[in-house]
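FAQ
Q: What does a multi-component entry look like?
A: The components come first, one per line:
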Amino acid sequence: MAKNIRPRIRVPKNVAKGKVFEIKTLVSHKMETGQRKNKKTGKIIPRKIINKFVCKYNGETVFSADWHPAVSANPYMSFHTTATESGEIEMIWTDDDGATYLKKAKINVT
Amino acid sequence: MMRKVISGAIVAAAIALAGNAAAGEKDWGSYQVGDIRSGYTYATAATRGIQDEDIMNPAMLWVDQGEDLWSKVDGEAGKACANCHNVASKTMATVGARYPVFEPSIGKMMNIEQRINQCRVQRMKAKPFKWESAEMLSMTSYVRFQSRGVPMNVTIDGDAKPYFEKGKAFYNQRRGLLDMACAGCHVENAGNMIRANLLSQGQSNGFPTYRLKWQKPGSIHRRFRGCNKQVRAQPYAYGSDEYTNLELFLAWKGRGLPVETPAVRN
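Then the predicted structure of the entire assembly, as tokens:
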């Protein structure tokens, strides 16, 4: 799965201004902890996790999280933010190897 | 004195609990058909919650991937699944509930994984997927997902009958150093604990199932192998006739339960 990372998100299309709404996210990732050993060679499998998640609302960071090795594979996360104006919500997951996975959604504030 | 009061309270609570169970069990809706109960009804509320909401269900990531693969051209014939089977939501709508089926060309039962690989080799002229690979799990999840909610309904008479009987015999056959049969746990002791785990009826309607323990979905044959290993028996190979016949018997055993793919279990 890791070769083709395709996040799933759920953002409401229309929200009333000033209302608190929920954003749900799911991303496919092995979240290799760096503490397991290869059973045959005995060598440690290098750590490879998503270490940072950022959510931007019209360019402004509204939510961010640092993730550590105890986070499960295929991590799910939900959080709330307040509807201020129509625009774009952008989510960025940053991998240990520097790769980033992006997902955007439009939101209409009424 | 205090201790006596507390133990008295515990006894009272225990009686109250027993009373509730007798007064009427939880209504599981379509997850229960007569005495046949889906593994869903044995899962904890938290696990059921993950399955209930598609955005939370990590197995949906594999379904997504399967959707991509469905229309991806592969092999020398230059075809994708979509070239012949068009829209999966229509052409695959009951496949998950009908399989495994008897396949005359090989003269035995064939399940979804085997059908996908047959198509890939014979029609797409492509390499077969490895059984437990991400591609295979994605494709089986996607195909079976199209039948979600359709009651399980396999054919067990006619050509399939001898294979059904074999599957049934396998299910009741004691095996391994622990000398245990599938039925010993999943029929006689469903609902009881085996060490720290709650035994379910071992229904197959949710496969490929996302197991929290595996951190990914797994095929029913992976589950069979795990069970066989746990009773200290030599597991059969992925896609072996023994397991495909057993899959047929299990599908019949869970007849009427809705296909739950992709289910989530602990």
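Q: Is there any commentary attached?
A: Sometimes. For this entry: Residues 54 and 228 of chain B are 31 Å apart (CA to CA).
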